[in-house]
Write a structure and sequence with these properties.
Blueprint (H helix, E strand, L loop, with lengths): L1 E6 L2 H8 L1 H9 L6 H8 L3 H13 L3 E9 L2 E8 L1 E6 L20 H25 L17 H22 L4 H4 L24 H6 L2
Parallel strand pairs: 1-4
Antiparallel strand pairs: 2-3
């Protein structure tokens, strides 16, 4: 089972977005049968079987084992991944293209870059899994609070200069790269405001205001 599977097929994406099938995929993080699932999701076994066949047909569920119970064969299945992410490839005709607006201060460009990252990483993960090799990757995630907009702008400028300096230092565009001794990598650095935490719902406070 993969930690994350990126869905590229539009039909598979549609199948995964059905609320019942999403619940089934969630429950199948651990192997289970249609009978076991019917109890968990509150549906007849026949209906669960219908959804399982659809998920299996799109490669989102896989067979683990078959158990003989008298004259009946019980199929035990599980989800192919713990989590799923739909690639922009599934919406190829309307997927964002980073080449359309290459503006480092554009929020839309950031989204287009993120979409491309999902698309490329999905293919790379699938290729590495098929080759039974570990995929070399690196990421940094953190939060920073700026005192002012000018501080944020100064940070972005310094970060850009630092990254450019590192790229110039380590980029190999010479003979070794042309001879196939080097491996090209994608570098994406993003900075955006953190989402504000939603305020908890307080029924008592609402009653006081009546």
């Amino acid at each position: 089972m993969l930690d994350i599977e990126v869905i590229e097929d539009p039909a598979a994406a549609e199948a995964s977005l059905d609320p019942i099938r999403t619940r089934i995929l969630q429950e199948l993080a651990e192997p289970g049968s249609a009978t076991q699932l019917s109890v968990k999701v509150g549906l007849p076994r026949q209906k669960v079987n219908y959804h399982l066949k659809a998920l299996e047909r799109h490669g989102l569920v896989e067979l683990v084992e078959e158990r003989k119970k008298g004259n009946v064969t019980e199929r035990v299945v599980r989800a192919t991944a713990a989590s799923y992410l739909i690639s922009p490839v599934a919406l190829a005709s309307v997927a964002p293209d980073p080449r359309r607006f290459a503006d480092r201060f554009s929020a839309f460009w950031l989204l287009a870059l993120a979409a491309r990252t999902v698309q490329e990483m999905g293919k790379l993960i699938a290729g590495a899994a098929a080759a039974k090799k570990k995929l070399a990757s690196f990421a940094i995630d953190g939060e920073i609070t700026f005192r002012s907009a000018s501080d944020r702008a100064a940070f972005a400028e310094e970060l850009g200069v630092a990254v450019t300096r590192l790229v110039d230092k380590y980029h190999d565009g010479g003979a070794s790269a042309a001879a196939g001794g080097a491996r090209k990598h994608r570098l994406v650095v993003v900075l955006h405001p953190a989402l504000k935490a939603s305020k908890p719902h307080s029924p008592e406070k609402e009653q006081d205001n009546d």
